[in-house]
Give the backbone structure.
Amino acid sequence: MERICVFGAGGVGGYMAAKLARAGRDVSVIARGAHLERIRTAGLTIRSPESGFSVRLPASGAIDDFAPFDVVIVTAKAPGIPAIARAIGPHLGDDAAVLFATNGIQWFYAEGFAPGGEALDTRRLDPDGDISRLVGAHRSFGVVVRSSNVVVEPGVVSNSGGGSYALGGALPGGWRRAGEIASLLDVDGARFTATPEIRREMWGKLVRNTAVALLCGLTHATPGEAFSDPGTRPLARLAMREVSDVAAAHGFRDLLDLDAELDVVSRMTAMRPSLVQDLELGRTVELDAQVLIVRDFARQAGVDTPTISALAPVLEQKARLAGCY
């Protein structure tokens, strides 16, 4: 049986790990603080509208305790990935697979992908090259998460609606291995599907997330409030349209119906975006992968994005002044 390690057992990672453990997979988790201690002593508990359960599984604050492993699932936020690469790199065999279940454009996006024959500048996603050097695109897979989870207290994750995950290789040749990994991870309540178009999946989620990051990051409104308010709803649609235009410049068209998506997000009145939570708690925000890289790509492709270009610097300054970027 392949050994799996979930690095970052917060909301997304905790739910995923618990479902895998419940299904009998050989899975361990890397966590920290009170959350780690509770998992060690009382197990990991999942609460959901349908049912709840608890599982016991190996947990540690150090990856060294579980090496070697076959599959590592990184669910930490994008700014922390270079440090994780430095931690896991020495333990990766040639056949190891590292899955990045992170928001936004993932670090390997430009590996083996040059729309229109033009090389893309994605240095802000791996500024010192640590991920590329220590993990490498040949071992890397992207995961686009469709699952709502939050740690409500140490050792307890609340989930609404289960989870689905699109999984694809960083390089074109990763399709076969992606299918094998998806089969390993696909369990009840956590459905994994292999796709040859993981970059399209990234954009499909980013159309919403970039607009949410900009409007909610600046106002601290919920997505529902920002997308339903008559003053900010037009800005949300403009931002979504601009993200779609940038995606189209990379060959990814007809991602979703913008007006239908606006209506869906307008009903999300209870959800608090992670970027807003991070700003309020003084934590580093995922600005590069969700907002600034879109602006970079727009400039490189000559796509006009006036809304993003106007709002992104304001959010960037706000994050800097708060010590979050």
Q: What stands out?
A: The beta strands are 3-7, 26-30, 44-47, 52-55, 59-60, 71-74, 97-100, 140-153, 156-169, 191-194. The chain is about 45% helix and 20% strand. The two ends are 41 Å apart (CA to CA).
